[in-house]
Amino acid sequence: AAAHGAGEGTTREARMSRILVTGASGFVGSYVVPELIDGGHDVVALVRDAKAQADVERRLSEAQRGHLAFRTGDVTKPETLPAAVDGVDAVVHLVAIARDWDGGRSLARLNTAGTVNVVDAAKAAGVRRFIHLGAMAVQDRPELHYASSKKRAERYVAESGLDWTIVKPSLIWGPRDGFFNIVAGLVRMSDRKSTRLNSSHGY
Q1: Is pTM, for the whole model, over 0.90?
Q2: What mean pLDDT comes out for the span 1-14?
């Protein structure tokens, strides 16, 4: 992880009580939200709709839900974000997509512009602490749509003047992840198909 102002931020973090989490209903968010609550923080989850809110709530115990609030917004719609960051002490920004189906346009809109919007809203509201989920070894190269979208977002965070930390994982997987479980399912299907074919040939 890269960080700016880490020494000051460590002391400040110990006093934090209310943290906005974007992407709270997603895979990473489903683990971050309960960890923050169990660590003694109150969480404000940014959700786009009632379904996302229900997804967050059903993963938490009744006691954990007592330290959770919701605000409706969309990182691609900056006009929805001032209300989301109002009164929070820090932002944990997790929203991102990895799949590219339109020549990088959605990646740029969500990963890059979405991050810009959240950073700007945090600064305008006087929120100083910002934790951003980046990605390992990304480069700003036009032909690498995902990597470029993430690198530009990281650069904006790093140049924001906020007390920031950028977490740069390599691969993330586990229960409920949206990629590796699909791949594992395809592998299992392939293995079963191979077994049936081999059996039919008397192997």
Answers
A1: no
A2: 57
